[in-house]
Amino acid sequence: MTLLALTGGIASGKSTISRMLAERGAVVIDADAIVREVQAPGSPVLDAIVAEFGGDVLRPDGSLDRPALGARVFGHPERLAALNALVHPAVREESQRRFRAAFAADPRAVVVYDVPLLAEARGGDEWDLVVVAHAPVEQRVRRLIDQRGSSESEARARIAAQVGDDERLALADVVIDTSGDMEETRRQVDELWERLSRR
Question: At what angle do helices 44-53 and 66-73 cross, to 10 degrees?
Fold first, then answer.
């Protein structure tokens, strides 16, 4: 059994790597999907968010209005810390449950935890390997503008809101450089998969 954390800054190519690993047989567990689930209407986490931040962070259908909540915490470290204290424990508990289920189903599984905020929310050092998707900031700004329709100022603000590349790279056992073309990224993923297969 191999538990791998895959992280990277916004527009670093992490999702592409995650998809390539899934194609090779990895079980991918998506931290962002778990966040959305634990914040679903009726959940204790959503109730706690409303108690902390007010009912106007809800949409009319009772679901979380992410942009409204984001506006409350963006640029306010103490508000962001309060939000993380509500969300992270529930995400951690659910991710651990999914890891256990994946290994119960196949003790030899390679489980990839696709987790954007590993550096920000680092729990225990339970990972067999930490893989960091990396591309230069200017290239990531360009991807956000070209692929996601961000303005340049929005793109730079979103990158600046995350931990710096140096801090993220310091966690890495393996760095996959996504600044080249897709074939170059695929070659590095193949090398990683070969390494995992030998474990």
Answer: 50
82: CB partners within 8 A, 6+ apart: 52, 73
The reported pTM is: 0.89
**Residue 168 falls in which region: left (phi positive, over 0), alpha (psi -120 to 50) or beta:** alpha
Pick the CATH number of 1-26+109-194 from 3.40.30.10, 3.40.50.300, 3.90.1150.10, 2.60.40.10: 3.40.50.300
Indicate the pLDDT class of residue 75, thresholds 50, 70 and 90.
confident
| Residues whose CB falls within 8 Å of the CB of residue 182, separated by 6 or more in sequence, listed in order | 16
For the chain, give every domain's residue range: 1-26+109-194, 37-107
> pLDDT digit string (tens) for 142-177?
999 999 999 999 899 889 888 899 999 999 999 999
Beta bridge partners of 111: 3, 27
Token pair of 169, please? 């790279």
